[in-house]
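ASSEMBLY PREDICTION REQUEST
Request ID: AP-0331
Submitted by: J.K., bench scientist
Number of chains: two
Total residues: 586
Priority: normal
Notes: Please return the full assembly, not individual chains.
Input sequences:
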Amino acid sequence: MSSQAWTNLAYLAASMLFIVAFKLMSSPRTAVKGNYLGAAGMAIAIAAACFERPVLESLGERGAWPLVLVGVAAAIGLGIGTAMAIKYPMTKMPQMVALLNGFGGAASTFVAGAELWNTSSPLAPWSQVAIATALTGLIGSVTFWGSLVAFGKLEELPQFKKPWTNPNRHWINLGLAAATLLLIWGSAANPSSNLLFWLLVMTGSGLGITLTLPIGGADMPVVICLLNSYSGLAAAAAGFVIDNSVLVIAGSLVGASGLILTAIMCKAMNRSLVGVLFGGLGTTTVVSGDDVYDGKIKSVSAEEVAMVLEGASRVVIVPGYGLAVAQAQHAVRELADVLEKRGTTVEYAIHPVAGRMPGHMNVLLAEADVPYEKLREMDDINPTFPETDVVIVIGANDVVNPAARNDPKSPIAGMPILDVDKARTVVVVKRSLSPGFAGIPNPLFAADNTLMYFADGKKAVLDLIAAIGK
Amino acid sequence: MLTILFADVAAAPEDPASKFIRLLTVFLLAMWVGFEVITKVPQRLHTPLTSGSNAISGITAVGAIVIAANVAAVAAGGYRFGNFLGLVAVVLAMVNVAGGFVVTHRMLEMFQPKKK
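STATUS: Completed
Returned structure:
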């Protein structure tokens, strides 16, 4: 068997390990092992790459230094990646994932660009390699710039505070899209042109920026999933360029994963993907909060909330993005401990799009050592709200807005929500009455059974724990 | 024995269309397996799934390594710009790989029941 055959066999082993890794992700108990197997697959594939025929040939002809350079580059990358992964706080996971997505996309673009630059044999127009090179350049650059913009938005950098609402943005997008299509056609017809390839990368970069800029914060889970999918598809396309099946397999697994998550997120917001990407949410119909809230808001103090909790036998906590912003996950866990010590049942209701990426709340609460059995999904916990004494909503707004259920004219009508309004008492911890991402008032805040506890999430919970202790 | 077994296959040249169909087959089957396996991942593991799959998209490192270390195919020119681009891709892809797997591990550790 030739050494290339052994390399290909190693790629096959790596591909199988990736599939098993995804399979083991189906349970928290096996997922750690799955992650190890995925890393092992990656190590095998990377080691095997060093035994590819062209690499061995260069080694024989020119010595080891090109491979040594690769080793240095790999070590730098591994160092940076590991340092980032260890340092990044859990509340900022969406940012980290966005950045990593971007790097993956950029790497695929460079792979295609480098292959095109160095190839000595002229490519046939409209050949597989020609088309795949163009697509890799495009998808990779959209991924990279889209991810950087997503990162900027998630970090709440001042430049990204306001969504981009240039009235001409659809025309700009249309122009960029038309230029992109022309350049794809051009690169496929003139596959040896470096110029056309890098022009395509530039229009792709433009599209990545202009398509992500107008997307608001609460739609970020969809964007993260989509970019995740793109980074996989870019790798798969790069696999078509260099005729390598492990790239195609790993890339399409990631592509599939991102697409599934995108679909789940869209469904959880009752919105179409096209709506998320091009819509902007009902910004034309601004409803004033005054009519809804006027005179109906019951503001309470920590002591009053403590009294309400005294008689409660079942409490459900609903976390939202505000919990992450306030870094209140540990305080919330403490509150739950205090309540449970008195014999109260405490559970957490997790809306699929709570936070800025899929599963964001689960990770935060896991960091605070909340056992995952207590974290319940929406469909699972919704029927239990009528038997719940107190619901504490912390930093969530639109996902508990009953208008989604009751008001067919509401911009969020039809979005699945947590039915917290059916509980006996709802305590909403919030800094002010400011609307959530959808920009609409929340009738829940004015409901008879709702108490508003105005404060910063973390401080509110700590004060509440102190008040219960008295 | 294996050399005899594979002799015929190695001798047969592959036309471009067959190569494309071979890769397309792999692509579609892998997508299918991906859909089947990933729909079974529960909501609570969606963040580690995202970061873990992210790490796997760093597989593009394989392509980057082969291009960056391939000086043989280059005619008299020696080290070329493409090799340098390949090196940049190696760095980026490795950040993706290491960052993705390590951060996923950090998260999954937190999901483990704590021994007290």
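REVIEWER COMMENTS: The longest helix of chain B spans residues 81-111.
SIGN-OFF: pending second reviewer
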